[in-house]
Amino acid sequence: MGILRASSVCRLFHVLVLVCALYQILYVGSVAAQTAQLSVDASPQNAQELNHAGAGGLWAELVSNRGFEAGGSNTPSNIDPWLIIGDESNIIVATDRSSCFASNPIALRMEVLCEASGTNACPSGGVGIYNPGYWGMNIERTKVYRATMYIRSSESVELTVSLTSSDGLQNLASHTITGDKEDFVEWTKVEFDLASSGRNTNARLQLTTTKSGIIWFDQVSLMPSDTYMGHGFRKDLASMLANLKPRFLKFPGGNYVMGNYLVNAFRWSETVGPWEERPGHFNDAWAYWTDDGLGFFEFLQLAEDLGACPLWVINDGASLNEEVPSATIAAFVKDVVNGIEFARGDPQTAWGSVRAAMGHPEPFPLFYVSIGNQECFKHYYKDNYVKFYSAIKASYPDIKIISSCDASAISPVNPADLYDVHVYTSSGDMFSKSRMFETTTRNGPKAVVSEYAVTGNDAGRGTLIAALAEAAFLIGLERNSDVVEMASCAPLFVNDNDRRWNPDAIVFNSWQHYGCPNYWMLHFFKDSSGAALHPSTIQLSNYDQLVTSAITWNNSQDGNTYLKIKVVNFGSKAVNLNISVTGLQTDIQTFGSIKTVLTSGWLRDENSFQQPDKVVPAASPITNAGEQMGVVLDSYSLTSFDLLLGSSQGLHSVSGWSLHSSM
């Protein structure tokens, strides 16, 4: 999710004046008959788990309910989505509590009643169990998949592990596990690779045999060998996130970390260590089971892989329906301090050693902790907050602590470095909130807009108009970066098979993905990190549908410096205007400047698997780039003008904005 963060180095504001003449149009692309003026003073001295986003999404594990724990601790239990191959006349399966892992004791007992031949012969291909993954497994030709499972049996074993089509008729890869009677008397870990000979986007993993007897299974996993940075993340989805150049990663989320009830809250310490030993938990806020393969360590690792700073939202002893009183909150406080030690502690510390054992002896740069999720209204929040704040600052004084209360509640007795803001509203109101922080006092803690999204009918499943409204809102945050530290849209990912929230930035299934218009909108802000901000004011009567900002930024790939002017036209009128740039210490280059436009033929246009590029940015060279230039703003559009500057233009006054993401 896109986040904007502002860290002030120094800030001297100048005026960006926009005076526009407008006329009514019906479709995007019409040209206004009158001319407007935009002036820029470019003097260098004046310058955020739901929707199966993790399990069955960003985390590349292909097996759903790999440890058979999803049905609960009472046995026999539901093993969904596992199903049997065969019928009850030749196979019986049931869960029991015989696992070798104390933290997740459930295992699956499979009793085979048929034989390889004779009067009680098994069906052709054998009997067994299969797992369809999360609405089908995407198996690609020539790709290698790592299979892992734990097996126990008091008899000899002959088990075939296969990747097949959803009906079992197409065999993509197979491996046979064999062993004598004594080989699997104790729980035994078995690992091997499966190389696929074909492609199927709705495949399954199946375990079959034609040998009678009893076999127990536990922790059955299938992971692609090719994951993002080799750390277990689905490569295509993580790459889409990386393309936004996020500077912060907020995790593990809001309601997800709380749970409807504390028994189902995200507990960081139960999500670290060997994946086989993680108990998993029921995500009751969004009604699905997660094995917690994507745990606290993996969130920190993903932030590092993206070059982003982690922002940890802690469980502060509150769920959506419960609250721990202050008299008994101490254990929760200690748990959070331990979590910070896991992330940042020396390898010789108790929890730092756990991180080091997981292959990361260096500490993670955790410098942001959010205490709770919009819980200021809860009875014990303020008293509990002070206990968390004091304990964290005592051990880690450099950590910035984010309060769920607004600025008015922050005081010397209830201190905070930052305060949390959530904004969910219609597109029209979101556009108007581009001015939300203009009257905010310039003293005191900054805001963290940790969740924002256009919702309601005009949001659809991700419309152009919603993206434009959010763009205007982000420009407003950019213009007020002296009082806003960061922001993240919510949510970032959604599995199309399990939509719990609309809209979302990135939509996917087992084998496809696309960005919604708001995902592409975020690309207009990804170069803001370390940019020099030139704030703008718009002077225009009878048309208040324009929001604009100007920055100068350095391209790290080619070393060039650009002046970027962004303009949202949220109205139905096209604008023809002249841009006048003053204060530059070097010329705007004749060649190398780019105009990028996000618009479409209808304000409620959306992207889809069938039309993933219906609403995407279109870039074109600016042929008349200069300090004086005429441009056209389409109706209902976001336009950026990246003007290439000569090498002598520097960034002396930096507003440290940067894109961020929220899980």
Structural class: alpha/beta
What ranges have pLDDT less than 50 throughout 5 or more consecutive residues? Answer: 1-35, 43-50, 649-662
Mean pLDDT: 87
Biggest β-sheet: count, sense, barrel?
8 strands, parallel
* SS elements, strand count: 36
Distance between the ends: 7 Å
- Strand order, largest beta sheet: 23-22-21-20-19-18-15-36
Q: So what's the overall shape? A: globular
Strand content: 25-35%
Radius of gyration based on Cα positions: 28 Å
Number of helices: 9
Helix content: 10-25%
Transmembrane segments: 12-33
Main location: secreted
Domain Alpha-L-arabinofuranosidase C-terminal: 450-637
Family: Belongs to the glycosyl hydrolase 51 family.
Write up this protein.
By secondary structure, the protein is α/β, with parallel strands linked by helices. The strands form seven sheets. An eight-stranded parallel β-sheet has the order 23-22-21-20-19-18-15-36. Strands 1, 2, 3, 28, 31 and 34 form a six-stranded mixed β-sheet that branches. β21, α7 and β22 (446-454) form a beta-alpha-beta unit. The longest helix has 16 residues, at 464-479. The chain is globular. It starts with 16 loop residues before the first strand and ends with a strand. Residues 1-35, 43-50 and 649-662 have low confidence and may be disordered. This is non-reducing end alpha-L-arabinofuranosidase. It is found in: Secreted, Extracellular space, Extracellular matrix.
